[in-house]
Specification:
By secondary structure, the chain is mainly α. It has 9 helices and no strands.
């Protein structure tokens, strides 16, 4: 049977894929939350005075950056239940989304630790000293002077990391998670592998729109918060 490119499959596939976008966004959202929290902890370890903590944090970042996403996903998916089984705990019935969130939280944390560290170190130390000299406490100086400026510096890299996470998250289907990518694979299998190109194009269009929306959101946020940074700098 000959295969013809049929544009109608692109149009028909989009409504079937969209409902599963919520799974993709849920996984990405939870990974960002947990990854950012862990990233802050790792960044604090890198910035702090403890040499041991700094080596641990740097080692973590290096290892995670050198591990392909799909390898880390398989290590998490197969490794955690295997370790738990040695302690008599059965984790084989846990939702696959949990392992995906763990995987990409660990990976996102490595990226965010560097984003946070470099953003913090980009702020002139003299601003902190000046804030303390005019009567602010150390905590107030950090929260009112240093962190708002570091936040603006971090925004572009945070946005880039989020976009990278969205793309890497497509690998979740390899362990059976039915997100937007997993649904696309099911549709293709249901069509006996025909019109796969059209369905992948529909999937690509959704990712393009989502990525552009995220990119534009962060550009607007950067402009808004940059105005606040200018006010802080001039006062």
């Amino acid at each position: 049977m000959e295969k013809y490119f049929d544009v109608s499959y692109i149009v028909e596939s989009v409504p079937m894929l969209i409902p599963f976008l919520k799974v993709t966004l849920m996984v990405a959202g939870l990974s960002v939350i947990f990854g950012t929290i862990l990233g802050f902890i790792l960044a604090a370890m890198k910035i702090g005075n403890s040499k041991i903590a700094k080596k641990i944090a740097n080692g973590y970042t290096t290892i995670l950056r050198c591990t392909p996403s799909i390898v880390l996903l398989f290590l998490t998916y197969y490794g955690i239940p295997a370790i738990a089984d040695n302690f008599g705990v059965n984790l084989n019935d846990i939702d696959k989304a949990v392992f995906v969130v763990i995987t990409f939280s660990l990976q996102f944390a490595a990226a965010m630790s560097e984003v946070i560290r470099t953003s913090y170190e980009s702020i002139d130390r003299g601003q902190f000293e000046a804030a303390v000299s005019v009567g602010l406490s150390n905590t107030q100086a950090y929260w009112r002077i240093i962190l708002p400026q570091a936040f603006v510096v971090a925004l572009p890299n945070f946005g880039n990391s989020l976009l990278e996470l969205m793309k890497e998250g497509a690998l979740a289907y390899t362990i059976g998670l039915i997100d937007i990518m997993g649904k696309a694979e099911l549709i293709i299998a249901g069509n006996y592998n025909t019109h796969a190109l059209e369905i992948y194009l529909a999937l690509a269009v959704i990712y393009w729109i989502l990525s552009i929306a995220i990119e534009q959101l962060f550009l607007k946020l950067e402009k808004v918060f940059s105005k606040g940074k200018q006010v802080i700098t001039t006062t």
